[in-house]
Amino acid sequence: MVIPAQNIKLKLARTAKQLSQQQLAERVEVTRQTISLIEQGKYNPSLKLCISICKALDKTLDDIFWDDSL
């Protein structure tokens, strides 16, 4: 399975901030499983959740969720 680039960007941004999936999940008020599914490319988060994730990671929507291959 090929993991989309934006999901790799999310994991890289999360680990750069030294956050576990659980810690990020708590900051954006979702479950750890939700963060895991997003990183695996198995769940498409709402725009509201995308914005919350970006704020928690000090990134823009483009930084994490824009697909550079388009």
Topology:
Blueprint: H1 5-16, H2 21-28, H3 32-40, H4 47-57, H5 61-65
Q: Secondary-structure element sequence?
A: HHHHH
Structural domain count = 1
The mean pLDDT is 90
Shape: globular
Question: How far apart are the first and last residues' alpha carbons, in Å?
Answer: 19 Å
Helix content, binned percent: 55-70%
Name the CATH homologous superfamily: lambda repressor-like DNA-binding domains
Q: Strand count, sense and closure of the main sheet?
A: none
User: What's the level 1 CATH class?
Assistant: Mainly Alpha
Class inferred from helices and paired strands? mainly alpha
CA gyration radius, whole angstroms: 11 Å
Share in β-strands: under 5%
With helices defined by DSSP (H or I, 4 residues minimum), what is the helix count?
Answer: 5
User: Architecture in CATH?
Assistant: Orthogonal Bundle
Low-confidence stretches: none
Looking at the structure, the CATH topology is 434 Repressor (Amino-terminal Domain)
Could you characterize the architecture of this molecule?
- The protein has a single domain (5-59), classed as lambda repressor-like DNA-binding domains (434 Repressor (Amino-terminal Domain), Orthogonal Bundle).
- Helix content is 64%, strand content 0%.
- The protein contains five helices and no strands.
- The longest helix has 12 residues, at 5-16.
- The model has no long low-confidence stretch (mean pLDDT 90).
